[in-house]
Amino acid sequence: MTPSTSTTRPDRSTPSTPPPRTREEAGGADPTVVDMAVVGAGPCGIAAGAAARRAGLSTVLVDRGPLCASVVDYPWYMSFFSTPEKLEVEGLPFVTAEKNATRREALAYYRRVAEYFELPVRLHETVEAVEGREGDFRLRTRRDSGREDEIRARRIVLAIGGFHRPNLLDVPGEDLPKVSHWYGEAHPYWKKDVLVVGGSNSAVEASLELFRTGARVTMVHFGSDFDPGVKPWVLPDIRNRLEKGEIRMFWHHRVARIEAEEVVLREEDSGQTRTLANDRVLALTGWRPDPKLLRSLGVPVDPDTGVPEHDPETFETPIPGVHIAGVLAAGYDANRIFIENGRWHGRAIARAILADSGQAAPAGN
Question: I need a labelling partner for 139 at 20 to 30 A (CA). Which of 21, 85, 276, 321 fits?
């Protein structure tokens, strides 16, 4: 049974100061136009909305999926690398049962953040286009039901995350039903021959869980070692499994072809191939953001790094009034920005908005 309170961290009281009234609530501005529209309701988008509310700015969050869609898609039994206090938003305590938060605890916490800061959140609603300019942006949206709507905002924050398109292997057979770029849990792979592609933390943790659930696991990676982002306490475990032959590893290999009951690997240097029996392929090679909305706004995106051009202090792009937040600011480098440092982007943006309007940021911002 999961304890109801933390056994490893002191409980801290909920911040006693509620979000201040916005200009609209105080009757000082057009209530149909928000100060900051946040596209994306993941942890960093929620943090941006909370920072806006704390600064007395009106806001709305809109997301094409559920709240914290990226966390929803994490492996079901995952625990975070970061400790809970590094995932907290605007001082609202995150109390957990163990040292590291679980996926389920994180989802409950971010729901609580949205409720505490009274964030207007519009979920399962896609932003299809943005028109206008700083001071009067118009976001054209479409709900899952097909209903179209419009959001008006003085500024826009794009916190759309980096998990829109998988990094494809680009090999024959990748479109077979047995291939997945997402991993949820190990049970469906029991007694199966599973190939895990990649050397990331996701690939390592999935391989270990699959092995302990009874799958026959083979890993393949084009490099000579695991990626630097692998959790340090996981490395001894995976290295022991490889040393004992409990998990097979093919270093300096890539997938050349996927077939119905086999997979063909190619050695990087020699080009020699080998064929393995295979039931399932988990291509855990990472994901990248969709630049469509950025490009429609005219925001330059570096073709090599995927990083949108922006001011690192205010996170404003060259398009006035358009900001970015969260992992989107890291482009294709998924190991540079996480929740623990991306959660502060919204505060920097709120501070910049207040400064531009000649207002001082409230204490703590």
Answer: 21
